[in-house]
Design a protein that fits this description.
By secondary structure, the protein is an alpha/beta fold. It has one domain: Alpha/Beta hydrolase fold, catalytic domain (Rossmann fold). About 40% of the residues lie in helices and about 15% in strands. The chain contains ten helices and eight strands. Helix 1 links the parallel strand 1 and strand 2. The two termini are about 30 Å apart.
Length: about 270
């Protein structure tokens, strides 16, 4: 039965596996075996401050690939924001049954689509040589743009759980045009599994235009869905139950199919 397929949930920058607590509970209630690990040095603020300097996206990818290799079957990979970028990179390595990209960062070669996305990328330069640093979470930025649609009391709790992030990983993910190694390059031809791309209509961090462009990269293998009234935190803002249930309904449709027959990108 396909519900024996493992599910790997990959969180975004400055977060931890706790990001997927809501989705994990729903998926487990449907019989899926869910794994929602912390990325390297993301278990606590103290651990991140001590260990994240110089950590690269490829380090996160290596850890996740090792976890995928230990599964008994190819997993469904669900990634949010930077985790959505990692999900694409994992899918390109093969051995992924399906991927759900939740407000995903774009891979190497996909330029920002809006003025806000360009400004967010340029704002990093005010940190100096930020790629050599461990970046502390900017609570005001997160409150205004990541958790802006979350109720006040829940927003405060989320802000308290944020942890530091590797400046090198952020550089590779958000300023890829200056990365001579092309760390986040994803060979679209190597991504053969079905993909669901979810975009929040009010998301400024990863605009719907960018998510649509990501979906189009993968042609008929990808389905794009616009959630008009939602923002970036599709994992927990009001309406998350409907969004997660929709992803489960999509999986019901695709897990028993040949991935090459999945359509919906538009």
């Amino acid at each position: 039965m396909y519900k024996r397929v493992p599910v790997l949930m990959v969180h975004g920058a400055f977060c931890g596996g706790w990001s997927f607590d809501n989705w994990r509970s729903l998926y487990e209630s449907r019989g899926f075996a869910v794994h929602a690990p912390n990325l390297r040095h993301h278990a606590s603020a103290g651990e991140g401050s001590r260990g994240l300097a110089g950590v690269r996206i490829s380090d996160y990818l290596a850890d996740l690939s090792a976890l995928v290799g230990a599964f008994d079957a190819p997993p469904v990979v669900i990634g949010h924001s930077m985790g959505g970028l990692l999900a694409q990179m994992l899918a390109a390595r093969g051995g992924v049954r399906a991927a759900v990209l939740v407000a995903p960062l774009a891979p190497w070669g996909v330029f920002p689509s809006t003025a806000f996305e360009w400004l967010a990328m340029q704002a990093l330069c005010f940190e100096g040589a930020f790629w050599n640093k461990v970046l502390k979470p900017l609570h005001s930025v997160a409150a205004a743009h990541a958790f802006d649609l979350v109720p006040d009391d829940e927003r405060v709790a989320l802000l308290q759980r944020l942890v530091p992030e590797s400046g090198q990983a952020i550089f590779e993910a958000m300023q890829w045009m200056f990365d001579s190694r092309k760390t986040t390059l994803v060979d679209r031809r190597s991504v053969t599994c079905p993909i669901l791309c979810l975009a929040g209509g009010r998301d400024r961090i990863v605009s719907p235009v960018t998510v649509r462009r990501i979906a189009r990269r993968y042609g008929g293998r990808a389905r794009y869905e616009l959630l008009v009234d939602n923002g970036h935190w599709l994992l927990g803002e009001p309406g998350w139950e409907r969004i997660a249930a929709g992803s489960l309904a999509w999986l019901d449709q695709v897990l028993d199919r040949d991935p090459r027959r999945v359509s919906g990108a538009r």
